[in-house]
């Protein structure tokens, strides 16, 4: 669980330290050029086709020069070129064309009047009165946009969209000619309680088909499953290591998150972190600072490949995770393969790594109801249901819900070490049951159940990945919520010393980095640490996610600020637990990937076409789901979000940035051609009507529809900015 040490995350608004970093400015320049190019080719399409049709183009601008605000301008021939001060698009101003229908007649009169008096047409900026009678008597200026035939005007209007699609295609072709780093469609960490976990999918499983359609990369999972219709299941065909035949699993994507998901992440490798792209690798480490992996001697290095644990060969990421988990409470001998002399030689080193204590504050939070029960698990076989509450285990309170999985794991290991089978425990459950009756059919009653469960031996690693994550107990096969109320405080812990008492309700937690001097000793600056606050409400049960994030926030002197509902605020420094250990020990592993590179120009064209089609149809399906309410409008991203994503893509590789530009350009093409007045698609619909009826749409109708379209676009822009600036919460 890495906290941000990456300078290219300069878009974090919590700090402005990025502004003095030259690397940040390089990325800003790359992003500005890339996004500017997308806008440029769109306007170039309008401009070029207008010129081919003989239309006079008065202005060509990137950005908008509202109220005359501009960065620069120059005139070449009859056209004024410039860069406006408001970088949210661009425009081409043609003689006789005006996006505002209220001025349509004025533009028509201006074009007619100019020819009637034998003068050069005005640029539209003049306030000189026009002789309306003379203008109405005159013919169209032959170079006016309005003087062109409907097919020509359709070509001019649609040229921007076509150019964006061609640009998207070209960018994708170049990207695949260079080689695009893709993630294999193999499952890595699994979110406890979510559909994939409930269906008993495991790290190392490969998803080879979704709803009968073959997969090639993890992006297929990320794009196909979230856009399933609400209520529709996704059928996954799975290949599992050790299984003789593939099998199918039916999952219903969870809608607890902003984007529907089944709760899987891409797999990793057995190689320690190698790079984070082509920039800023001087700050990354193959381990989390101040962990046992960081303190090992000799030190681990970037790119070390773990090949053995305690002299047992390690081949896959899933195998490595399970082996680390099985040995979480004892020292291990890690054998790594290290390239030396720039890959000319290879050396094997064995490094001893001690157990990594879990970091805790001394708070014991209240255990909530069970969120989900895993298929085929001991809990499922015993008839435990979602909504049940565990109130006792073998007659004793369940204790800290965060430590329960580890305590049961130790109990199982102790029994197995003595040659006994895993023990059976007696769970005391509280279950709400509906009491059906004529008088009050909705009344509920609570019943107490005693359920014996034989625990299972497993070393599965199941940790919180998302906000609102439950806690998984692999030996039982249940995942339960952890509530925001303090149930107890560990004696002599930071929480106890700060005066936290049972019954207090947590509402906010913030990560407080060490002072500048402490950061400097680690080779860091304040802006390099950018953990975001965590909010707690009845719907946001974020203690497990906060707890897991805290395991990566390990800088000496780092603290957690907790705010409670009663107004009390405490600043606590995490301490190491004596008998509770984190399986990962601080290792930072490189994500799995493969280079998808076209082997010929024909294959590059094929892959580029597939990517462009994917991105264009993806936005259409997204818009469809948004219009039906199956997706929340909070998934919309504005300019700041686009800039963040662009910055990350640019910092990783040229090919990834080109794929990002493919997505942006294809998205712009589709959105701009929607049949909304003030957009190109709306103008195209008006022209289609004019071509069919032989006359333009009534100006009053155009005016009303255009105002509606403008209001819609402005409302969406305000909404997107509100989300970007966190004025509107995305949760």
Low-confidence stretches: 1-18, 121-139
Per the CATH scheme, the topology name of the domain at 362-573 is Pdz3 Domain
- Main sheet record: 4 strands, mixed
Tell me what the CATH architecture of the domain at 362-573 is.
Answer: Roll
The separation of the N and C termini measures 21 Å
> In the CATH hierarchy, what is the superfamily of the domain at 362-573?
PDZ domain
Structural class per helix/strand content?
Answer: alpha+beta
Number of contiguous helices = 18
Number of strands: 30
Placed side by side, the strands forming the largest sheet appear as 2-3-1-4
Helical residue percent band? 25-40%
Please state the overall shape, judged from the principal axes of the Cα atoms: globular
Percent range for β-strand residues:
15-25%
- Mean of pLDDT: 86
Instruction: Report the C-alpha radius of gyration, rounded.
Output: 31 Å
Structure overview:
The protein is an alpha+beta fold. Among the domains are: 24-53 and 148-178 and 601-615 and 629-731, no CATH class; 268-357, Pdz3 Domain; 362-573, Roll (Pdz3 Domain). Helices cover 33% and strands 24% of the residues. The protein has 18 helices and 30 strands. The chain has a four-stranded mixed β-sheet with strand order 2-3-1-4, with helices on one face. Strands 8-7-9-10 form a four-stranded antiparallel β-sheet, covered by helices on one side. A four-stranded antiparallel β-sheet has the order 14-13-15-16. The radius of gyration is 31 Å and the shape is globular. It starts with 21 loop residues before the first helix and ends in a 7-residue tail after the last helix. Residues 1-18 and 121-139 have low confidence and may be disordered.
